């Protein structure tokens, strides 16, 4: 029965006679009437295949069998509906010694080299996701057929690595070398058709035509010979010229000191790209070095943080219809993103003008993210302007995203709650107001929860799931499940001033504005923060958020937390009154050009005698850490890993540092507390170390 169900689950995929073959380990295999050896990857107990030591060792045994049987061809593909493979299983490297890692890599290369050398024509059929180690396995085959809709890529750079199973040389020698390098340097995935255009795959077909495509590959009707461009880059002068351009472009986004992997890849290709054997040896050595770096260890940690946050999902949310109230910047983006993810969405607002702007912005965002006119059309069809608010009575979740005014929100709830259907969730996108206050007047506060999105919704991965005293556990869980279904990362927090992310971010931004008041050049402040690894300096961030919003949130937090905050310079409220609010008005702390970018003086052009502070970076970063520690102590967030994940995915806190708490532990809690005390003596009580530092230290000592 289990075997039959397994076969039926993959009935849409062409698996040849191996569909009914007995599973042994991670693979099943069978030879068909045309003497084609069908080898199917189907890792048991997993929804997606990953390439680990066991998978490759078993592949080696199948290669022995193929050599013995001498089939006419070999077809390698996956039985998983999700795709071919999600990449290498990074867990196999965690805790392994350098010797273990080097041994695993060499063993894997030997197996893939043997696969590449078998006499029968080897054909990889790729559907769904084909990433990292999965794509490297496919590149060891003679031909690659991609099923329409497949996505291919090398995401290793996101883990502080580059491909390590032969991908660096096989991709640059089989595909357009510049395009292959771009794939590896960016970590981005490309479509099947794009992969065909650059030579990464040999053909693209619909699933129903896979058998015909296999036959075409067998008889030599598909394939690509190295073109003039590939041959030109086999010469070092051509590679050196391209490598200089690559380094320049990479430096704009990833400094070498923080992210060594892309530079190691460029060096590898420039020096060894003309020789397969030389590049193979250098790839293995380079990969083994990179995996031992702090950057890679911390980025691997971030990978597991992401998985842990996704793992908070317990099942399906039961949401199919989303109703959003408020077509402003946040409400419009929430609605558009939900439509993109396949939900039916109704968007309500009291005015037509913001509705029109929201639909226009949605179209622009969808075109930028989907890059497919049919998918954009379908998503826009799911996004329904709802001037009369009729969707509220049919929705599974209603998300309120109106301005931060307590009375306004309560009025909306009073009108909406009687219309909600049984089982519907009422959610607020508030970033500051206490949920207990918002819930007053609700007849059923158990269905009320906070869903705090971050702007822009299409790029910021975090959603804070905000609970309050009377929320039902099943409501919070369904909200968490819904966040994951939106392809977002949920973090459970308790209702408290600023929740977690804003509470930590406001001191960072407020201290920067105070530094500007002290005469420190804003470009220098931003530069130091960006050198630390923040995606944007705090002065520019204040302009991006809007000085009116930044001032309002800082004032609100200072009042509600009853603790010292950086003083607000007198000129800031005046700027807000004058309408100089930042990017949205064309100017604030910076002036903004037509391209929406701030006009900054080059840091190198700042005079040495301009005001500086040797403690500048610690004044920015340590209050942020202090706030996160306070949130842990107060129970706003209960898990250190979740706190680190929330700050990385909600603020962009330097990923290569592994998160603020991880950074604090790495730097040393005693050192940070001592530095906070010095800053307190010099700048005032806002730098007072939180009592939670002592709790962290105690936990660290117990763990040791």
Write up what this structure looks like.
It catalyses: a (3S)-3-hydroxyacyl-CoA + NAD(+) = a 3-oxoacyl-CoA + NADH + H(+). The structure is a single chain. With 704 residues, the protein is α/β, with parallel strands linked by helices. The strands form three sheets. It has an eight-stranded mixed beta sheet, with helices on both faces. Strands 1-2-3-5-7-10 form a six-stranded mixed beta sheet, with helices on both faces. Helix 15 runs antiparallel to helix 16, helix 20 runs antiparallel to helix 25 and helix 25 (616-634) crosses helix 29. The protein is globular, with a radius of gyration of 28 Å. Residues 1-10 have low confidence and may be disordered.
Task: Please describe the topology of this protein.
Elements: H1 2-9, E1 27-31, E2 36-41, H2 53-69, E3 73-78, E4 83-85, H3 98-117, E5 121-126, E6 129-131, H4 133-139, E7 143-147, E8 151-153, H5 167-174, H6 177-186, E9 189-191, H7 192-197, E10 203-205, H8 210-218, H9 228-232, H10 236-253, H11 261-272, H12 276-290, H13 294-310, E11 321-325, H14 329-340, E12 344-348, H15 352-370, H16 373-382, E13 383-385, E14 397-400, H17 406-416, E15 425-428, H18 435-439, E16 448-453, E17 462-467, H19 473-485, E18 489-494, H20 501-518, H21 522-532, H22 538-545, H23 547-561, H24 571-577, H25 616-634, H26 640-651, H27 660-667, H28 669-683, H29 692-703
Parallel strand pairs: 2-3, 3-5, 4-6, 5-7, 6-8, 7-10, 11-12, 11-14, 12-13, 14-15, 15-16, 17-18
Antiparallel strand pairs: 1-2, 8-9, 16-17
């Amino acid at each position: 029965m289990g075997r039959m169900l397994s076969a039926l689950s993959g009935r849409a995929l062409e698996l040849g006679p191996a569909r009914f073959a007995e599973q042994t380990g991670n693979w099943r295999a069978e030879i068909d009437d045309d003497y084609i050896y069908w080898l199917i990857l189907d890792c048991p107990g997993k929804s997606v295949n990953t390439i680990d030591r066991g998978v490759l060792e078993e592949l080696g045994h199948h290669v022995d069998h193929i050599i013995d049987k001498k089939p006419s061809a070999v077809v390698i593909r996956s039985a998983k509906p999700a795709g071919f493979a999600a990449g290498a299983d990074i867990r196999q490297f965690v805790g392994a010694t350098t010797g273990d890692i080097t041994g695993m890599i060499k063993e894997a290369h030997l197996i893939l080299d043997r696969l590449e050398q078998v006499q029968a024509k080897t054909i990889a059929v790729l559907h769904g996701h084909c990433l990292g180690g999965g794509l490297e396995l496919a590149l060891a085959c003679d031909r690659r057929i991609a099923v329409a809709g497949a996505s291919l890529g090398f995401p290793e750079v996101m883990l502080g690595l580059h491909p390590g199973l032969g991908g660096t040389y096989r991709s640059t020698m089989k595909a357009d070398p510049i395009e292959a390098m771009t794939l590896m340097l960016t970590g981005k995935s490309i479509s099947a058709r794009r992969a065909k255009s650059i030579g990464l795959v040999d053909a693209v077909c619909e699933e129903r035509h896979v058998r015909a495509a296999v036959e075409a590959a067998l008889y030599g009707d598909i394939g690509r010979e190295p073109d003039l461009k590939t041959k030109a880059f086999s010469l070092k002068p051509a590679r050196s010229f391209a490598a200089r351009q690559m380094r320049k472009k990479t430096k704009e986004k990833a400094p070498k000191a923080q992210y060594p992997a892309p530079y190691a890849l460029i060096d590898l290709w420039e020096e060894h790209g003309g020789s397969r054997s030389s590049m193979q040896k250098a790839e293995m050595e380079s990969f083994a070095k990179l995996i031992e770096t702090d950057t890679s260890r911390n980025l691997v940690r971030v990978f597991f943080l992401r998985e842990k946050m996704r793992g908070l999902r317990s099942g399906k949310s039961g949401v199919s219809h989303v109703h959003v109230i408020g077509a402003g910047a946040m409400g419009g983006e929430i609605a558009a993103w939900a439509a993109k993810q396949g939900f039916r969405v109704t968007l309500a607002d009291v005015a037509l003008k913001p509705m029109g702007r929201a639909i226009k912005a949605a179209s622009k965002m969808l075109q930028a993210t989907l890059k497919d006119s049919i998918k954009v059309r379908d998503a826009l069809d799911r996004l329904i302007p709802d001037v009369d608010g009729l969707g509220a009575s049919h929705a599974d979740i209603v998300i309120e995203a109106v301005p931060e005014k307590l009375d306004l929100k309560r009025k909306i709830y009073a009108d909406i709650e009687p219309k909600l259907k049984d089982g519907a969730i009422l959610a607020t996108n508030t970033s500051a107001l206490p949920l207990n206050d918002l819930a007053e007047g609700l007849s059923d506060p158990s269905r009320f929860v906070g869903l705090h999105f971050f702007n822009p919704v299409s790029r910021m991965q975090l959603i804070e799931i905000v609970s309050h005293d009377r929320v039902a556990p099943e409501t919070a869980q369904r909200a968490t499940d819904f966040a994951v279904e939106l392809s977002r990362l949920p973090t459970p927090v308790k209702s408290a001033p600023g929740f977690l992310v804003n509470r930590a971010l406001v001191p960072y931004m407020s201290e920067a504005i105070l530094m500007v008041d002290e005469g420190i050049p804003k470009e220098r402040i931003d530069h130091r923060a960006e050198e630390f690894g923040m995606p944007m300096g705090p002065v520019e961030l204040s302009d991006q958020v809007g000085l009116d919003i930044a001032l309002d949130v800082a004032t609100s937090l200072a009042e509600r937390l009853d603790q010292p905050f950086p003083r607000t310079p007198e000129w800031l409220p005046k700027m807000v009154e004058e309408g100089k609010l930042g990017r949205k008005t064309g100017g604030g702390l910076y002036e903004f050009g037509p391209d929406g970018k701030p006009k900054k003086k080059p840091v190198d052009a700042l005079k040495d005698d301009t005001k500086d502070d040797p403690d500048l970076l610690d004044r920015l970063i340590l209050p942020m850490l202090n706030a996160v520690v306070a949130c842990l102590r107060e129970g706003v967030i209960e898990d250190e890993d979740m706190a680190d994940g929330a700050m990385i995915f909600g603020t962009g806190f330097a990923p290569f540092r592994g998160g603020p708490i991880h950074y604090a532990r790495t730097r040393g809690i005693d050192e940070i507390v001592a530095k906070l005390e010095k800053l307190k003596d010099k700048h005032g009580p806002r730098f007072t170390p939180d009592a939670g530092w002592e709790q962290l230290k105690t936990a660290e000592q117990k763990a040791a």
